[in-house]
Specification:
alpha+beta; four-stranded antiparallel β-sheet; 62% helix
Length: 180
């Protein structure tokens, strides 16, 4: 029972990057590494490197080492320009209270909605968003007003991604129900 009680609530991250060049550089570097590894693997077969030693041989090749360093640099640069929003699932009573606090309108209920689509998204985002300072200590996350401002200001696809991330962290099953 102690292990069950010690489980942490799931978290999910939404990564946002507006720097297309940084994304392209990371993708290009990953492709370069894949090509270098493929070339080195082919060379290892031609040179008769035994299977048990092949991976170590491949990663020690100068072209692979250089490509890995380039990828590492590109990924660091990408991380520097990427915003990461982290969401933590709510305990079930808090989830249910949030639903009660934002009931669907009569018209929304007639359409099968479980919550008020105008007020619930910002409330859920605010309730689930967590921030950590540079020491990893949790600090207050975004307010409901902040969340609504983002939902209103961002393009539809990004606003949906923001809400979906907060929703999914609460609705993704981490259990295996088995085959019976």
């Amino acid at each position: 029972m102690a292990r069950l009680k010690a489980r942490k609530l799931p978290e999910r991250a939404l990564r946002l990057c507006d720097d297309d060049e940084a994304k392209k550089n990371a993708t290009d570097a990953a492709l370069e590494l894949a090509k270098a590894r493929t070339t080195a693997r082919s060379a290892s077969v031609e040179q008769g490197v035994v299977e048990a030693e092949r991976e170590q041989w491949v990663i020690s090749q100068p072209e692979v080492v250089a490509a890995q360093l380039k990828l590492d640099d590109a990924e660091r640069a990408l991380a520097d320009v990427t915003l990461v929003l982290t969401f933590r699932a709510l305990p079930r009573p808090a989830w249910e209270q949030l639903l009660r606090d934002h009931p669907p309108t009569e018209a929304q209920a007639d359409q099968g909605m479980e919550y008020n689509i105008e007020t619930y998204p910002a409330a859920l985002i605010s309730a689930c968003h967590i921030e950590r300072d540079q020491d990893g200590v949790e600090v207050p996350g975004m307010t409901e007003r902040d969340a609504q401002e983002l939902l209103d200001a961002w393009p539809d696809s990004e606003a949906k991604a923001l809400f979906t991330c907060a929703l999914l962290v609460n609705q993704t099953l981490r259990a295996d129900l088995g085959k019976g």
